[in-house]
Amino acid sequence: MRGPIEVDLYVRRGDCRVMGILGDKHTVIEKVDPQTDFTNHIIKVDLLDRETKRLLTIGGVRIVELKGGKQIWAKAPSCSSCKFLSKTEVMILNAKPLSQNEIVYKLLVPSVGYLKTVITELNSLGLKPRVLKTDKPREDDLELTDRQLQILLLTYKKGYYDVERKASLTEIAKELGISPSSAEELLRRALKKVVGKYLNGTF
Questions:
Q1: Of 31, 47, 107, 119, which cross-links 42 as Cys (Cβ 3.0–4.6 Å)?
Q2: What's the rounded mean pLDDT across residues 163-172?
């Protein structure tokens, strides 16, 4: 299988402050944005009771209720798996907790070869990774070329879209081995597709 793949990846770790309290009560973490020091989680919830909120706060988790309490935004120190993934070129699409210590990440990975590298590194960290499922992103869902997806992943991971931009387009172009003008055109075409699908309600 060449090109980017979607992967359901099982990982076992015991240092997630959010899931250490919530466990598997909440079936889907709808968004995970890992950083080296902290990770933002958007979690679908029924309604958190006062005691759970208190335990999260005591545990160093900052929570903000969204959508009338049907979601929470939880910001916590990064666990070992999120800390590692923040340094890679993978994108976390969502995640499903199985228990306080077990989680299945749905990842978008640049290639099978890169996935093998990620698995090796996770094993070295003692996180017991296991690939549960792999699939090629469906063309009718993604409609991005491999190169367009590559630049979207790279610009996202390098902080190009951050308020205080952490990487320039020139730096991105250098990593891709192309000119800045080519990188600008490639990114513009990729963003046009992504924004178009979002505005048309197909995401």
A1: 31
A2: 90
Q: In whole angstroms, what is the distance from residue 113 CA to residue 118 CA?
A: 9
Kindly report whether the global pTM for this prediction surpasses the value 0.90. no
CB-hemisphere CA count at 13 Å for 127? Answer: 27
Output the pLDDT for position 25: 61
What element of type H or E holds 102? strand 102-109
**∠ CA 153-154-159, rounded to 5°:** 105
Q: At what angle do helices 169-176 and 146-157 cross, to 10 degrees?
A: 130
pLDDT digits (tens, 9 = 90+) for 26-63: 567 888 889 889 999 998 877 677 888 888 899 899 99
Place of tokens 């979002």: 198
Cα gap 93→105, rounded to integer Å = 8
Do residues 5 and 115 lie in contact, with contact meaning Cβ atoms separated by under 8 Å?
yes
Question: Is residue 89 a contact partner of residue 154, using CB atoms and an 8 Å limit?
Answer: yes
Q: Work out the number of other CB atoms within 10 angstroms of the CB of residue 144.
A: 19
3-state secondary structure 187-199: HHHHHHHHHHHHH
